Amino acid sequence: MKIGTVTGSVWATRKANCLMGQTFLLIDTGCGELVAADQVGAGKGDRVLLATGTVASRYCMDAPIDAAVVAILDQEGTHVRT
Amino acid sequence: MKIGTVTGSVWATRKANCLMGQTFLLIDTGCGELVAADQVGAGKGDRVLLATGTVASRYCMDAPIDAAVVAILDQEGTHVRT
Amino acid sequence: MKIGTVTGSVWATRKANCLMGQTFLLIDTGCGELVAADQVGAGKGDRVLLATGTVASRYCMDAPIDAAVVAILDQEGTHVRT
Amino acid sequence: MKIGTVTGSVWATRKANCLMGQTFLLIDTGCGELVAADQVGAGKGDRVLLATGTVASRYCMDAPIDAAVVAILDQEGTHVRT
Amino acid sequence: MKIGTVTGSVWATRKANCLMGQTFLLIDTGCGELVAADQVGAGKGDRVLLATGTVASRYCMDAPIDAAVVAILDQEGTHVRT
After folding, report:
1. Which DSSP category does C17 fall into?
2. In a domain, D58, yes or no
3. Contacts of A7-10 spanning 24+ positions with Cβ under 8 A
């Protein structure tokens, strides 16, 4: 799963009907920008975890979406199992 | 999801029967060109949102299509939640 | 969907049984070479449209194939809606 | 399947409900970092085998996950069939 | 589909139960190394054809595998239809 930072959002008046009501965020992944649907409630500056592909569509009720925010990261630490 | 700009369209007389009636647009994604089916009605110069993979096929009635225009962007602004 | 040019074909005597009878073409996509199953009848030099992933497999009767030629392009022109 | 090395883990309080109870590891794949769910029990420094895409989601009970650790490598040797 | 050359194999004692009995080969694809399950019987030095993604999983009885060897190439020649 990719990690990215929310940089803004995009708006589309003309779109597939099945996308009505979805929020689309602009995400900077460090190696390019992509758009992801958001149902978690991320805002600008949040570092988020993305699911892509069919997985994202299924998460968004089978809408034609191939990237979705599934989590907002607390921090990126290091966890060593002991 | 990728954002791209419509640069033209492609035509194919010889093709899979299940592609009959589909419109295929050339899309410049900033890092390469691809072809996407369009059922939203995008035209040259439009900035569009693309769904790729199985998601695109399902949106296009299970045709052998792996990229589809699902929205035409109004603008790319920044939306800060308050 | 990717556009590529057919540069030749590949042959495999030892293969998954479910690949029997499939034609595999070498395709130059401009950024690397890949192999795609062909049921449209493309030949060397043809510019073709490729479907990839599960979409290609489904088009090829669920064979373990992740790229397929689905159309032979007539030309790459520009189509402006008026 | 990609090979990567576990470099740490990520934590998210706000996330999709269906991700509750999953462990997410940071993985260095040599050409970038990604996050993968872990049900095998990998720890920092382990070299792991990753499954990606819908395959990973299915392995994780259809959660919105597109990368999962499916094995911890013993060693990377060379095996010649004789 | 990608073409690659078998360079060795990998071993994992700790792994998902559903991977028991699978052979995993290291494959050099020319632009990076990956691991693929092999049920065709490829050995070191063989040039092989790979299926990736859900397609590979389905070929391997729905195991959490996203790359599989599906053919061993005889030769890479050029085939012109006449």
Report:
1. G
2. yes
3. A7/A33, A7/A44, A7/B78, A8/A44, A8/B76, A8/B77, A8/B78, A8/B79, A9/B77, A9/B78, A9/B79, A10/A35, A10/B3, A10/B49, A10/B73, A10/B74, A10/B75, A10/B76, A10/B77
Residue of B nearest to C39 (CA): B16
Chain E residue numbers touching D81 (CB-CB < 8 A): 41, 43-44
Evaluate whether D50 touches D30 at the Cβ level (below 8 Å).
no
Which of B31, B55, B60, B82 to probe by mutation at the A interface, max A CB count within 10 Å? B55
pLDDT per position as a tens digit, A31-42: 899 999 999 999
- The pLDDT score that the predictor gives to residue E76 is 53
Q: How confident is the model at residue C78 (pLDDT cuts 50, 70, 90)?
A: very low
Domain extent, residue D27, equals 2-11+21-72
The domain tally of chain B equals 1
CA distance, residue A51 to nearest chain D CA (Å): 6
Tell me, yes or no, whether E82 lies in a domain: no
Candidates B55, B71, B74; nearest CB to A66: B55
Q: Does the predicted TM-score (pTM) go above 0.95?
A: no
Within a domain: residue C52? yes
Judge contact between B72 and B46, C-beta under 8 A: yes
In order of C62, D69, E63, the CA distances from D59 in angstroms are 21, 10, 8
